[in-house]
Every structure is written in structure tokens, then in C-alpha cells.
């Protein structure tokens, strides 16, 4: 309330919602119906709202409202198409282990820019233990990995780098276990 005892007029736009979506996601209470919606959307984000509503036991409008609320809260980050890497000739998955003796903010900023600029690198994690960073990349073959490696080490100084090539994919999913929480 302001000094006059009036409630200020707060206009919330989508930019502000997106800016603070990580906070909203933590505050958002996910119930069992939301979990069913999330499970179905993770399996097929292209499903129509009417069909989704039927699967989870809601009307089309109620289902749409819940999806919109979860999007605004940042619970649903994006709806995407998953592409078969082999269809694009990206047959080799590589896990790249990186060690560095540099831990100052300037180096981290340079490293972050370097890996962000390399589209073959699909994931980057800072880890505990023997490794400093673990990267995951998709490339056509070992020669393509070597070209990626050469571009990476030209961009940022690394102490040690090693790669493990995936021989067989046993399980790979983007579906989070929404029922375990």
C-alpha cells in the first residue's frame, strides 16, 4: 500500500515474468494433475490441448490455463522438437572431460563464451571431484571431433582435456521423473 492507503497498480508483463521465472517456478505448487500434464507434454509436446485435456481428465480450457500458468512460472521452459542426430549425420556422442588450473572469473567467462559458440557442444557442466567440467557433444565422426577439439583449444586455455566416445546408447531421455518428487 502507498501512503494514501491505496494498493498500487502493478502491471506485470511477460518480460518481467520471464526475468523472474526461476523464482516463480520454485513457488509454484505442482499438483497431481499438473504432473500428468507434464508427463504427457514431455512425451509429446505437439499434442493438442483438447487431446491432452482428455488424457488428464480436464476440459480444454482448464488444461490450457494450467499449461499457461506453468509456462509463466517457468516450470515449462520450452516446447521443442527432438531431432534424431543420425538423421543429421551426427552419429557420434562424445563426453569431453576438462581440467583447468585457472579458476578466476575472467577465465570462466572466456570458457563460457567458447563453449557457447560451438554448436556441437550440447551440454556443459561444472563438476566436483577430479574433473572441472564435463562437456557433451554430437559430431559426425572422430575427425569431426578433432576439428571441434582444435577450435576449442584455440579459444580457451585448458590444462587437460580427454574424450570418451559413446559406443552404445543404452538410455537417453529428456523426460524428467515428475512422479518421484
Task: Provide a brief overview of the structure.
This protein has 181 residues and is an alpha+beta fold. The protein has helices spanning 14-19, 21-27, 32-43, 49-56, 60-72, 105-116, 142-155; strands spanning 92-99, 121-126, 133-139, 160-165.
Write the layout of secondary structure elements.
Blueprint: H1 14-19, H2 21-27, H3 32-43, H4 49-56, H5 60-72, E1 92-99, H6 105-116, E2 121-126, E3 133-139, H7 142-155, E4 160-165
Antiparallel strand pairs: 1-3, 1-4, 2-3
Helix pairs in contact: 3-4, 4-5
Describe this protein with a few key phrases.
4-stranded antiparallel β-sheet; Arc Repressor Mutant, subunit A; 181 residues; 40% helix; 7 helices; Alpha-Beta Plaits; alpha+beta
How many independent structural domains? 2
pLDDT < 50 runs, ≥5 residues: 6-12
CA-based shape: elongated
CATH topology of the largest domain: Alpha-Beta Plaits
- The total strand number stands at 4
Output the CATH class name of the largest domain: Alpha Beta
Q: Radius of gyration over alpha carbons?
A: 22 Å
Helix run count: 7
Arrangement of strands in the largest sheet: 2-3-1-4
Structural class, from helix and strand content? alpha+beta
Biggest beta sheet summary: 4 strands, antiparallel
Report mean pLDDT, rounded to a whole number. Answer: 89
- Taken as a percent bin, the fraction of beta residues is 5-15%
Q: In the CATH hierarchy, what is the architecture of the largest domain at level 2? A: 2-Layer Sandwich
Amino- and carboxy-terminal Cα gap: 37 Å
CATH homologous superfamily assignment of the largest domain? Lrp/AsnC effector binding domain/regulation of amino acid metabolism (RAM) domain
Amino acid at each position: 500500500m502507498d501512503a494514501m492507503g491505496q494498493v498500487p497498480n502493478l502491471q506485470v508483463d511477460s518480460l518481467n515474468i520471464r526475468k523472474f521465472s526461476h523464482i516463480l517456478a520454485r513457488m509454484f505448487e505442482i499438483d497431481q494433475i499438473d504432473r500428468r500434464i507434464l508427463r504427457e507434454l514431455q512425451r509429446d509436446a505437439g499434442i493438442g490441448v483438447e487431446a491432452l485435456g482428455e488424457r488428464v481428465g480436464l476440459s480444454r480450457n482448464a488444461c490450457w490455463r494450467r499449461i499457461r500458468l506453468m509456462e509463466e512460472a517457468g516450470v515449462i521452459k520450452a516446447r521443442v522438437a527432438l531431432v534424431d542426430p543420425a538423421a543429421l549425420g551426427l552419429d557420434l556422442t562424445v563426453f569431453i572431460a576438462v581440467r583447468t588450473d585457472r579458476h578466476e572469473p575472467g577465465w570462466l567467462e572466456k570458457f563460457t563464451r567458447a563453449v557457447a559458440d560451438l554448436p556441437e557442444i550440447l551440454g556443459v557442466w561444472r563438476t566436483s571431484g577430479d574433473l572441472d567440467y564435463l562437456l557433451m557433444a554430437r559430431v559426425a565422426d572422430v575427425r569431426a571431433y578433432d576439428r571441434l577439439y582444435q577450435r576449442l583449444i584455440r579459444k580457451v586455455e585448458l590444462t587437460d582435456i580427454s574424450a570418451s566416445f559413446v559406443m552404445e546408447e543404452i538410455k537417453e531421455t529428456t523426460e524428467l521423473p515428475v512422479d518421484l518428487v
